Amino acid sequence: MRVALALTAARLRLVVRNRTFLFFTLAMPMAYMFFGWMIIQRSGREVIPYLLASVAALTVAGTLWGISLQLVMFREQGILRRFRMAPVGAAPMLLSSIFSNYVMLLPTILIQYAFARWVFHMSVFGNLWGVLFLVTLGSITFASMGLIIASVTNSMQETQVICQIVWMLFMFLSGATIPLPFLPKFIQVGALFLPATYLVTGFQRVMIGNQSVFTLGPNIVSLVSSAVLAFLLSQQLFRWDPEEKVTRRAKLWAVSILIPFLLVGLWEVHSGKLRTDAGVDYRTVMQRPVPVENKPQ
Amino acid sequence: MRESIIQVENLKKNYGAVEALRGVSFNVEEGEVFGFLGPNGAGKTTTVEILEGLRQPDSGRVSVCGMDPQRAGDAYKQIIGGVLQSTSLPEKIKVHEALELFSSFYHRRRSLPDLLKRFGLEEKRNAFYSQLSGGQKQRLALAMALLNEPRVLFFDEPTAGLDPQVRREIYEIMQELRTEKKTILLTTHYIEEAERLCDRVAIVDAGKVIATGTPRELKQKSAGTTRMEVKLAKPEQADVLGKLEGATDCRPFDGYFVVHSSAVPKTIVALVKHLEATGNELAGLEIATPSLEDVFIELTGRRLRD
To answer: Residue B144: which pLDDT band, with cuts at 50, 70 and 90?
Structure first.
């Protein structure tokens, strides 16, 4: 743990010196919130928590970009090789990625809250402990997924392509940009198998519905089990050297982190609870009914 | 009898169909600077990276300070230091931060101000890694290799790609380490480096050690001959020149002939007579005492940088 903390401190210093990273972490979510507000401002101030829930979820899920790209860059530049010469194992290296990412996320989410409060005059804050819990859990889960992506890709280009695909799915099909109740029914069903859906709906429940995290059983189970699985796998698949190429078998192992979401997704298809809750949260803020054809049966 | 600090026996490593190491064996004694001299692709880096615990051999036995580098884990990393051939640090890490960070990984730690002073990095302590010159980066790499007062140091081509001035600076640092009786395994393809810095040298080629000894011993293997580089105006057969009086060997090389002679005046006289008889002319002649390069050429028929 001592080594992981030393690496975390070093990586935090590197992050605050990286303008690109700061732009994508701090400025981009604000821009997204601002544009979102431009589109739905007619619905009144009540939509701000809904918007903030989406922005927070995207910020947390977006950590997989930064983590995977940084790790692959470190590997390509031979930086990881230097660490391997020292008594530094894979676990401290990966933990430091997760820790430093989390430490950067907290002020980012705080700034988003402050922005919503002071710029958009948001008056509903939701369950703040629940928000903190989801930021923590979500950052561990999505950072671990980023570690997996970094482990199974061989170059920056490949990493970017995979992150882009994953990110697009998260962004447009999880309810983060287009509210889940507004999506066609078959996409709603597909969204139940996406990790980001559980984060987005989790944030909506605690921020709009003021729910306790204890009511988010499937969300928590899927995020926790996926985080544990992804971290353990990323330790096994971790590569220090750019010359070590990833095997097809390793890539298949990496896909196994989706198993929790597959199981919870099947359960949610059967129960319909998550989609019902998403509809309730949507009606609460938009004060308009969910389109009839998209209502869960 | 005291055991060698580094023992390598019949080390083999393949990369797909390529045989990188074909049974490498050698020993290094404590306090010795041992050179691994060979051309690119000879297997030097693979050998060193196996010794550093960064690569897994296919077969063979390796022992460093009584430990197996592949199995000893962090305990082994605590007692070794090294400069890797292709490595880097994050661009935005400062010199003192890099030293502090890596120092924090070890149980035994050297004083950082002393290291900064010794490697001439005091003024650069707050500079980002990206702001350092090639020589400064290499000095930092050397300083980092010494952070934990290692028992064994591995330097993999530490001066490759550096300009002559910086190379001389690195040589001075390594000379100091030599006088401190550090055990160092140094890979290089620079003859000068091996001759100047190493107590003993192993010449490697195509994944095998082809000769081992002190630079003096290896040069004596050149049979006490003198090297003559002969350039002729017209083509000639090497074996004809090799039969001249006093000549022990002749090989064609880059448009000239390398003739080894045990009696230079006699060989020159015989050469002139031969040229007159065949209507050929001498376009150039250089005479030098044999170097490790000559030993390498004698053993392999190629230059080190071919």
So the answer is: very high
8 Å CB contact of B84 and A78: yes
User: Is the pLDDT reported for residue B48 higher than 90?
Assistant: yes
Express each pLDDT in B178-222 by its tens digit: 888 889 999 988 877 888 889 999 998 889 998 898 888 887 776
Report CB contact under 8 Å: B86, A78: yes
Return the pLDDT at B222: 63
* Closest residue to A14, CB basis, from B77, B86, B93: B93
CB pairs below 8 Å between A and B: how many?
61
Residue with tokens 């040229």: B275
B90/A7 CB distance under 8 A: no
Q: Which of A2, A14, A79 is opposite residue B88, by nearest beta carbon?
A: A79
Q: What is the spatial distance between Cα A52 and Cα A22, in angstroms, rounded to a whole number?
A: 19
Q: A249 Cβ partners below 8 Å, 6+ apart?
A: none
Q: Which of A79, A88, A89 sits opposite B89 (nearest CB)?
A: A79
CA distance A72 to chain B (A): 13
DSSP string, chain A: -HHHHHHHHHHHHHHHT-HHHHIIIIIHHHHHHHHHHHHHGGG-TTHHHHHHHHHHHHHHHTHHHHHHHHHHHHHHTTHHHHHHHTT--HHHHHHHHHHHHHHHHHHHHHHHHHHHHHTS-------HHHHHHHHHHHHHHHHHHHHHHHHH--SHHHHHHHHHHHHHHHHHHSSSSS-GGGS-HHHHHHHTT-HHHHHHHHHHHHHTS---GGG-HHHHHHHHHHHHHHHHHHHHH----TTSPPPHHHHHHHHGGGHHHHHHHHHHHHH-HHHHHHHHHHHHHH-SPPPGGGS--
Q: Which residues of A touch B144 (CB under 8 A)?
A: 82
Interface ipTM: 0.81
Residue A61 CB burial class (10 angstroms; 0-12, 13-18, ≥19)? buried
Contact B83, B138 (CB under 8 A): yes
Which residues of B have a CB under 8 Å from any CB of A?
A: 52, 54, 73-74, 77-78, 80-82, 84, 86-90, 92-93, 97, 101-102, 104-106, 144
CB-nearest partner of B87 from A3, A78, A87: A78
Residue ranges of chain A with pLDDT lower than 70? Answer: 43, 287-297
Q: What is the DSSP letter of B58?
A: S
Note the pTM of the prediction, 2 decimals. Answer: 0.80
Could you give the CA distance from residue A272 to residue A201 in angstroms, rounded to a whole number? 13
Residues 6+ apart with CB under 8 A from A268: A192, A218, A274, A275
CB of A295 less than 8 A from some CB of B: no
**What would the DSSP string read from start to end of B271-286?**
HHHHHHHHT--EEEEE
